[in-house]
Amino acid sequence: MSDEQIVSILNRSVAIADPILDIIAHSDPLQVKPRTFGRQWWDVIPTRFGDLTATALSAAAWPGTGSWEKLSSTDRAAWWVHRIGPVTSAAPAFPGMFGAWTKKLPASTVLGAASQALVVLAIGREYGIVDRNDEIDLLGAVLFGRDLDGAKVKAVERQEIPDADRKTAVVTALREIGVALLRIDKELGARPQSPTLLAHLTWIPVIGAAASYLGEQIALRKAADATRAWIVAHREAV
After folding, report:
1. Three-state DSSP class for 11?
2. Domain spans of the chain?
């Protein structure tokens, strides 16, 4: 598969992933994030549901909260790995949660690549990688070890997530990223992988899912390290 074809696929993948990241970072349906600013020690004692939610978000240093604003770019990048990473890693470890289609596709490979793409893009954002061309180049380098040029294609319009049944829409969007990446499945072997021992353990009943989850977490951290290395080597993109 040519670099131009890979760039085209990654272009659409980014168009789908960006709105998902926006939802995670900016969504505040209960309007409680403003309550996380200027909090005192006694504010951790909830007097109503909104206070309890604000306390939970603040404790998790969720994007848009007072705690988040105090984090450095490095800490914010680490947040995506430690907070969101475990959730996205659960997809390839427990593919059944995505429905019957996982029986017809190499779900572990596809969803593993999709979850890594999501977190890699999130880390890139924290360091100022927001241009579509740079995002494509970043994904190509981290997931496939390919030196791409995202400027070779016109940016695909963002695939916005509808407000109605947003949870299902996000799951569907993540699946779409995986299906898109399936077209370059032969290149997916280059992405950061689970340790060999854990990869073998995934075939064993009962412990297989746990081994897969742990393996995806380790692979995700490798992807995060590769992302930071790419950013350091391409400071002009920041």
Report:
1. helix
2. 72-152+162-237
Angle between helices 107-126 and 208-233 (to 10 degrees): 40
Torsion angle of C-alpha atoms 154, 6, 74, 194, degrees rounded to 10: 160
Q: Is the dihedral of CA 69, 73, 76, 80 positive or negative?
A: positive
pLDDT tens per residue across span 12-55: 999 999 999 999 898 888 888 988 887 665 565 656 666 788 88
Tally of CB atoms within 10 A around 164: 7
pLDDT value, residue 208:
72
Give me 42's structure tokens: 């006694």
Phi, psi of 34 (to 5 degrees): -60, -25
Per-residue tokens: 231: 């950013």
Q: What is the tens place of the pLDDT at every residue in 185-221?
A: 676 667 777 788 877 776 776 677 777 778 888 888 9
Q: Please name the residues in contact with 116: beta carbons below 8 A apart, sequence gap of 6 or more.
A: 88, 142, 143, 191, 192, 219, 220, 223
CB distance 223 to 120 below 8 Å: yes
Alpha helices in 94-190 (DSSP H): 107-126, 132-144, 166-182
